[in-house]
Amino acid sequence: MAKVGFGIIGCGNIGPVHAAAIAAVSQAKLVAVSDIVEATAQKLGGQYGAEVHTDYRKMLERKDIQAVCLCVPSGLRVEIAEACAAAGKNILSEKPLEVSTKRIDRIIAATDKAGVRLGCIFQSRFAEGSLLVKKAIEQGRFGKLVLGDAYIKWYRSPEYYASGAWRGTKKLDGGGALMNQGIHQIDLLQWFMGPVAAVTAKTTRALHAGLEVEDLATAMLEFKSGAFGVIEGSTAVWPGHPARVEVHGTEGSVYTEDGAIKFWQFKKRLASDAKIEAGLSRESELGTGAGDPLSGLKTEGHRRQIMDFAQAIQKGRAPLIDGREGRNAVALIEAIYKSAATGKTVKL
Ligand SMILES: NC(=O)c1ccc[n+]([C@@H]2O[C@H](COP(=O)([O-])OP(=O)(O)OC[C@H]3O[C@@H](n4cnc5c(N)ncnc54)[C@H](O)[C@@H]3O)[C@@H](O)[C@H]2O)c1
Q1: What CATH code is carried by the domain that includes residue 8?
Q2: Per residue in 153-207, pLDDT tens?
Q3: Residue 190 lies in domain
Q4: Which distant-in-sequence residues (6+ apart) come within 8 Å of 89 by Cβ?
Q5: With a 6 A CB cut-off, is 13 part of the ligand 1 pocket?
Q6: Domain total for the chain?
Q7: Measured distance CA(346)–CA(202) in Å, rounded
Q8: Protein residue with least CA distance to atom 18, ligand 1
């Protein structure tokens, strides 16, 4: 089967992770890259023998590109996505899909209209531990789910926020510790526990006083199922800890750190549990962004998700994480921000 041709728009920090991941997927081929900063595009294009563009619209004219990875700052995606959809390209966007549900709805409408696929990167879902938790939930091994929690106690330095004019701004980052960093675990939480019905939250700036957005947030959750939970997210906790997601039920409890299983116990034990228990001290295969955005990030999660996206195109099916899934995490974060701003419980 012919390889799926990929283009990348935005060659900054995460663009090269997409390029490395595409190069590691046998169903995919990197055809061209684009960045408004020519040297940035040249550097990445040169490394992978890909054509280089400073105007992504030129890149979209290529017939041998079927998929485009959107790696520009979060709040710059909607117009680019609309242009990609109009050019008939399938879109795999970095998280968050955009900075508000209103803007995400424009992207969903454009891709629906054009009949192209829309995927949202949440590489944590492809971690082995995440997949094991999801399977155990589907098998009913937790009994009744009662608590689901996400803890993202991370650190970002002042230099990190100064490294791009868009970072930490409402307009282009859309939010702080939750919208940029914690969104991976917020996505996992709803994937595991089901949708959130109501949220009561507080946000503040604990360390990065000059930011427009939060570097500390807590949220009390009520899931539609009746289960409770909490989210604690920060970029002010030094040195930063692995991001933890916990799922607790009347018949079992599990927690993961950066996608690796760290606790796994069920009332009704299965023979297959022994293998999982034996790997409990294992580190995550995806790496961690706890103290630094990219120093610990491995390409493996992106490789698995890009492989799924390429196969979805080849086989004419939907990607595992589509635009509507990408929207759910932003909708919950918006509700958290609204609750923090109003001091009231917000229903979703
Ligand atoms: N999945 C993850 O773990 C992960 C990790 C890091 C970043 N991200 C996401 O990736 C996105 C980018 O983050 P980053 O850290 O790489 O930012 P960055 O600032 O390092 O890179 C963004 C790049 O986009 C380019 N750009 C801006 N406008 C453009 C346009 N119109 N056409 C082409 N290029 C354009 C910039 O010149 C820059 O090189 C963000 O949305 C972020 O949330 C995801």
Answers
A1: 3.40.50.720
A2: 999 999 999 999 999 999 999 999 999 999 999 999 999 999 999 999 999 999 9
A3: 126-292+329-347
A4: 7, 60, 65, 66, 67, 68, 116
A5: yes
A6: 2
A7: 12
A8: 12
